[in-house]
């Protein structure tokens, strides 16, 4: 069916609204952290990657950093291992580390690159193990619990990421790093995205998550907070407003801001084309974390 006159005008208005934002983001790095349950829905995956392809088309340098918690959980359950978390961080013994690496690097990373390829995007799949991309050291115990093979990031090879972007590739980075001995470590993908963004001087950092942002009452969508100040974060963690897996996510937002990224957003990745809505419309969506 042909569009009506009103629909054509509406599309033109959307384009006019988007143009100043497209201009502002041209030749800028935008880091997108992608993960959570949205990765299990083919239709949502498609819209997210369509957004990444659209960014590339209009001259933005998108960098995709991904985890894969639900698929890792499913694989661990299949082999009879229980998933354990402390403050949103996965407790990772040697066997779990092997499974994490297999799922993230061997399956999810390559599937993302393949799908982007069908959209005309040259995507390169990487983990922190490739070319010394992400260096780590073992993370200290949290709350008296040894997390095992969980790493704290000590370095990011920014030149490698920037070179790939300038050569017209989209880097797709799995959240695994190596220490000085070459051992593999699991990295929280939210933390990895923040460190990658800081290292390359990203103009924008977007965390795609399963909910619409930070809520005053985590169970009530109507309490969504459009904006949260860095100074409020620790108090919100202490009183339980921010809890579980949202803790490392929000703390990585704070770290990114302190490292110089001015625009950090938590956005619901299950909303179709949420990246484009956030970047190229006047209102945007989700929660903005700011100084």
UniProtKB/TrEMBL annotation:
It comes from the Bacteria. The keyword Amino-acid biosynthesis applies. InterPro entries: AceGlu_kinase-like_sf, AcgluKinase_fam, ArgB, Asp/Glu/Uridylate_kinase, NAGK-C. Its main location: cytoplasm. CDD domains: AAK_NAGK-C. It is found in: Cytoplasm. The keyword GTP-binding does not apply. Its EC number is 2.7.2.8. One of its GO terms (molecular function) is acetylglutamate kinase activity. Belongs to the acetylglutamate kinase family. ArgB subfamily. Catalyzes the ATP-dependent phosphorylation of N-acetyl-L-glutamate. This is Acetylglutamate kinase. The lineage of its organism: Bacteria, Bacillati, Bacillota, Clostridia, Candidatus Protoclostridium. The gene is argB.
């Amino acid at each position: 069916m042909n569009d009506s006159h009103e629909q054509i005008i509406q599309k033109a208005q959307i384009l006019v609204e988007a143009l100043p934002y497209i201009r502002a983001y041209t030749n800028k790095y935008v880091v997108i952290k992608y993960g959570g349950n949205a990765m299990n829905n083919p239709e949502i995956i498609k819209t997210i990657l369509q957004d990444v392809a659209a960014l590339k088309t209009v001259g933005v340098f998108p960098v995709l950093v991904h985890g894969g918690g639900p698929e890792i959980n499913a694989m661990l359950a299949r082999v009879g291992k229980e998933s354990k978390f402390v403050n949103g961080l996965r407790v990772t013994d040697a066997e779990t580390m092997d499974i994490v690496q297999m799922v993230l690097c061997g399956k999810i990373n390559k599937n993302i690159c393949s799908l982007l390829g069908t959209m005309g995007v040259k995507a390169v799949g990487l983990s922190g193990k490739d070319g010394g991309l992400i260096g780590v050291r073992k993370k200290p115990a949290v709350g008296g619990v040894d997390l095992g093979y969980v790493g704290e990031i000590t370095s990011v090879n920014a030149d490698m990421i920037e070179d790939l972007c300038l050569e017209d590739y989209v880097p797709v980075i799995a959240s695994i790093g190596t220490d000085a001995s070459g051992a593999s470590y699991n990295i929280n993908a939210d933390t990895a995205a923040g460190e990658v963004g800081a290292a390359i001087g990203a103009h924008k950092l977007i965390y795609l998550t399963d909910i619409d942002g930070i809520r005053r009452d985590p169970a009530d969508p109507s309490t969504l907070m459009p904006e949260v100040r860095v100074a409020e974060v620790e108090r919100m963690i202490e009183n339980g407003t921010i809890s579980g897996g949202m803790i490392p996510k929000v703390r990585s937002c704070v770290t990114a801001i302190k490292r110089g990224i001015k625009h950090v957003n938590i956005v619901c990745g299950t909303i179709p084309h949420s990246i484009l809505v956030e970047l190229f419309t006047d209102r945007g969506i989700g929660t903005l974390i700011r100084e």
